[in-house]
Amino acid sequence: MPTATESKTIGFYLDGSWHQDGERIEIYSPGTRELAGTTVRATAAHVQAAIAAATRAFEITRTMGGYERQRILRGVAQGLETRREELARTLALEAGKPIKAARVEVDRARFTFAVAAEEALRVGGEYLPLDWQASAAGRWGIVRRFAIGPIAAITPFNFPINLVAHKLAPAMAAGCTIILKPAPQTPLTALRLAQIIEEAGWPAGALHVLPLANEDAAEIVADNRIKLLSFTGSTAVGWQLKARAGKKRVVLELGGNAAMVVCADANMEYAAERCAGGGFTYAGQACISVQRIYVEEQAFDKFVPALVERVKKLRVGAVLDEATDVGPLINEEAARRNVEWIDEAVGGGAKLLCGGTREGATVTPTVLTGTSPAMRVNCQEIFGPVVTVEKFSSFDAALEAVNDSDFGLQAGIFTRDFLRINRAFEKLQVGGVIVGDTPTFRMDHMPYGGVKDSGIGREGVRYAIEDMTEPKLLAVNPAGL
């Protein structure tokens, strides 16, 4: 097995072995074009081998005791802690994520596996009395959850270890086998994680990590031996995959253009601080990054300068610089698209309050106002360091503005008015309402997912396990024993 001290080439992981024979893929850091590492592309033949091996290995994982799964998951969490700095550096280089944010992500992945270790003991069921009618007197039942089988996971570039953890950790806790296709931009961190999982004792054949061309990955989407497809990525691709997935279960975590409502009774300084963080962490490349901010008109003239002041203080720089807050986008194409949408908004009458320039793959943190709902900076997912801020006079109108979107992942609200909080919870068409913070807030054990074009299903370890297991009833008639 390759180690961190060997060359920068790490092969793919298939059926308990590391493979380095095949087409080399060089991964370059987005900001500097420095070589972050090299891996090897798997093929359609490797996909078929992985599916067959995952099907065989399921006979092992499905019968593992909860204590065994817990022990292995704890070992993974410990491995992540031990190799934290190595993983953070790899992640920072291949994803263009500032090193201090990369460390946070590795810590979150460790937490995700630690939570999964506990949940491995809680894949339970319930006792069900069946004597609700006289004809069923004395009868009772139990409901138990069983692992469903091999799972296919496809993950994006923006969180190349923690979003991988959100596929692998619950699958391991449930007793399922997994085939992972990591994002083509960021396969190295996922392969390093596979090393840790192997070292922790997960059975050979129960995990496969395959850097694949999209046409070869299509086989794991369509094959009926795969029982669940878990995809995190772009909205267009996600719904296309669902259409090709056949009868298997599908969980989709897709895009968003997350909205924030700031009411006049909020702490404006705190709200501005949190919005500056929520909109520009990892250059806005998260599907719950703050993109649209609606501020009550009485507070608009206080909030906007406070926001712009904080945004201007964000440090744009190299990803391995400890002081950097905002690094590059994943590539220059994404950066050009961001600036094109900014220029389009300004050309349509919007006012640029700060930012709006590009150097290579880096876009300066940008705040716009005077935008219209139809502008792409509002109605689509910009996935970059850009927020719009507009005023509202009616709280109900603000909620309608949040809902006026094809997406519905999470929304945030700053207010101390419980009636408004309750109304937002009832009316907002999203998977989560975050009160007193931005929609960018996520704890890795909470249910996470959206509605509308933002996807179907929920992640968060316990909630993912529900999709990865099948409830089965045992009904008992004592009179017949």
Radius of gyration of CA atoms, rounded to a whole number:
24 Å
Helix content: 25-40%
Strand order of the largest sheet: 15-18-19-14-13-21-22
What structural class is derived from the secondary structure elements? alpha/beta
Low-confidence stretches: 1-7
Distance between the termini: 54 Å
- Please tell me the overall pLDDT: 96
Number of helical stretches of at least 4 residues: 15
Count every beta strand, where a strand is a DSSP E run of 2 or more residues.
25
Strand proportion, as a percent range, falls in 15-25%
General form: globular
Biggest sheet overview: 7 strands, mixed
How would you describe this structure to a colleague?
By secondary structure, this protein is α/β, with parallel strands linked by helices. Helix content is 40%, strand content 22%. It has 15 helices and 25 strands. It has helices spanning 44-61, 66-82, 84-95, 99-119, 162-174, 187-200, 214-222, 235-244, 268-280, 297-313, 332-347, 376-379, 395-403, 418-427, 461-468, and strands spanning 9-10, 12-14, 17-19, 24-28, 35-40, 125-129, 140-147, 151-154, 178-181, 207-209, 228-232, 249-253, 259-262, 292-296, 351-354, 358-359, 362-363, 366-369, 386-392, 407-408, 410-414, 432-435, 451-452, 455-456, 469-476. The strands form seven sheets. The chain has a seven-stranded mixed beta sheet, with helices on both faces. A six-stranded mixed beta sheet has the order 10-9-8-11-12-24, sandwiched between helices. Strand 21 (410-414), helix 14 and strand 22 (432-435) form a beta-alpha-beta unit. Helix 1 runs parallel beside helix 7 (214-222). The longest helix is centred in the first third of the chain and has 21 residues, at 99-119. It is globular. The relative contact order is 0.14. Mean pLDDT is 96; it is low at 1-7.
